[in-house]
Amino acid sequence: MSKRAKWSKGDSDESKNLPIYQHKAKLQQAVKDNSFLVVTGETGSGKTTQLPQYLHQAGFWNNGKIGITQPRRVAAITVAQRVSQEMHCSLGREVGYQVRFDDCTTQDTVVKYMTDGCLLREILADPVLSQYSVVILDEAHERSLNTDILLGLLKQTLSSPDKASKGRSVPLKVVVMSATLETDKLSVFLGGCPVFTIPGRTFPVTSKFGCAIGPKDTESSVYVKEVVKVTLDIHTSEMAGDILVFLTGQSEIEKACDMLYEKAESIDYRYDVQDRKVEGMLILPLYGSMPTDQQKQIFQPPPPGIRKCVVATNIAATSLTINGIKYIVDSGFVKQLNHNSRVGMDILEVVPISKSEALQRAGRAGRTSAGKCFRIYSQAFWEKCMPEYTVPEIQRTSLTAVILTLKCLGVHDVIRFPYLDRPEERFILEALKRLYQCDAIDRRGKVTRLGELMVEFPLPPGLTRALLQAASLGVEDLLLPVAAMLSVENIFIRPGHPEKQKEADQKHRQLGVQAGSCNDFTMLLSVFEKCKASDAPSAWCKDNYIHWRALKSAFSVETQLREILLRLQQKRDFPMEKFDGNKSELFRRCLCAGYFTNVARRSVGKVFCTMDGHGSMVHIHPSSTLFDQEPQLDWVIFHDLLVTSRIYIRTVCPIRYDWVKDLLPKLHEVDVYELSSVAREEVTDEEVAKWETKEAAKRQTEGSAEDAF
Ligand code: CDP
Ligand code: MG
């Protein structure tokens, strides 16, 4: 018997009950008949888990893999787990997943869940996706940056028959799945392709506004406390049924869960057990970086008499459906990456959700019976602070990485690329400017050799540039661990208890002292190396208030980055340079090569001023090892910014002005007008020569760079 027969079982009873099941044959046929298909249906109707299985049963895997993209890594992993169970195979075999730095697939994998970022990387290596028979872009309504770019790329490839058939035996099928929103727009964008609607059953949800959050409240302690209060009210006064709480991020969720544990313990259940049939509460957090074994619990029904309460990020709004939810607590906020024009960078911010998002959240309570949604914000907040729709990511974040990808794929005219929603031209120009500053593209807008190397790393451009600088000087061992540590969740534990907090701070300070030259980057390197060298690494972490799980991922990420680098180094013409000097200086100089755009100079007292043209006034974050040593610092570079009432710089390193002197003029030399013409069309050599002469003259009249500041 063939190996595959083992898992080619039919659909289970549970999956036969999903709304999508009625449409199985028609869906299989529709994918066969069309190169593009839009599929829409209520969240929870079975699109993500079932459609790939239907296509598998219809034999699509004979012509290549069935790939399904997700904007969120947790969704890719948990759904792959679920589907592998439904298909009776072990995860990573026939059904697998791939997310950044975690590839759980094998030669046998034919149903592959992955993040949209991973598929974009695959397109770089194989533009016609010759390994796939079908690609499903899931959660298109989320409008993530990578999904939007994939839509444009696949539209471009498939609408040009020469390109589409090159390197493929049968044409690729593309299915775009979305939870009801904007399907007409998608269909028009994809050349008027058919829209397949899965009729859903939903039950009414009554929504109630609260009064705790008005138009002026954005402090997280306010909404965390209120969310806890409302959840406990529901638990003590409403009938049986599980609760889903929407909060913003890991730390707020953990804080809320701690408060809930504490308060739920002291509830006296003796009086109304009879009425409500609820005797206790099972509190479960759900956020992106949680270990997957803990995530599994979310989907299991609670023990009899116990109420399940899931405290989640926006991931539970559409990506993951939890059965049995009857009550929603909506904080009204979401953590979102936005381009902040005040500081000229992307910043993770807590912002009010949109009205459509609020309706989606409420809808999660009405899947199997009527439900209730408790909003902690007032009607005035709804009217004054919440936009109608969420702005697509492509219109609010930095485009640097995707523009480099597009350029590497031969899309020269990045302004007229088919975007579903066009980003503002200034964002595109900003990205080009940044790429030029990192030496990833030249004056003509063409990708440089360095740019071709940079695109291979799944890291932010500045960090990649620093890493490649280190590699070219033969000191990659200094930068690889740092890049890995900056790619995983926060490694420093800061306990809630004040005594423990003091102890943790002290331990961390000690680690800083042991690291020798004191800056946050060497601190990361030192923690990485010390833990790696330890005989009992997990105990070492516990002792030093370091997250062992995060460090374990950092070890794995470092290995993967090293593999990418080795592969590139083995190719010909990997740039190499010579350098004399001490290692600490070398390390910081390499950082400067990537982070010179994030440079700040002491202004007055403890205030620094950024030098990228925005001139923002910034402070060193208290978590930095340099926090207490500010008086000795004049110039620093930093990894990122945190904006609250003040702007803080995090992961900071002191540098000497000399090291960035020659790089800083680059921040000001690119004329946006010139970039715009570069972006639109080929520019002649003559024109480039003209710009260069103009700039040289400008620099001469301005005198030295230091004077210019
Ligand atoms: O994609 P769509 O929102 O249409 O639905 P789905 O994610 O395929 O979910 C179908 C069903 O599978 C729901 O009842 C989910 O609760 C269930 N599911 C699960 O139990 N465990 C998972 N890891 C994923 C989905
Ligand atoms: Mg889905």
TrEMBL record:
Q: Which UniProt keywords apply?
A: ATP-binding, Helicase, Hydrolase, mRNA processing, Nucleotide-binding
Which residues lie in Basic and acidic residues bias regions?
Answer: 689-709
| Superkingdom assignment | Eukaryota
Q: Give the matching CDD domains.
A: SF2_C_RHA (cd18791)
Write down the chemical reaction(s) this protein catalyses.
ATP + H2O = ADP + phosphate + H(+)
Main enzyme class: hydrolase
Q: What's the family?
A: Belongs to the DEAD box helicase family. DEAH subfamily.
**Protein name, per record:** RNA helicase
Q: Which Pfam families match?
A: AAA_22, HA2_C, Helicase_C, OB_NTP_bind, WHD_HA2
- Helicase C-terminal domain segment(s): 231-410
Residues forming the Helicase ATP-binding domain are 28-199
Q: Which GO terms describe its biological process?
A: mRNA processing
| EC number of the protein | 3.6.4.13
State the Gene Ontology terms under molecular function: 3'-5' RNA helicase activity; ATP binding; ATP hydrolysis activity; RNA binding
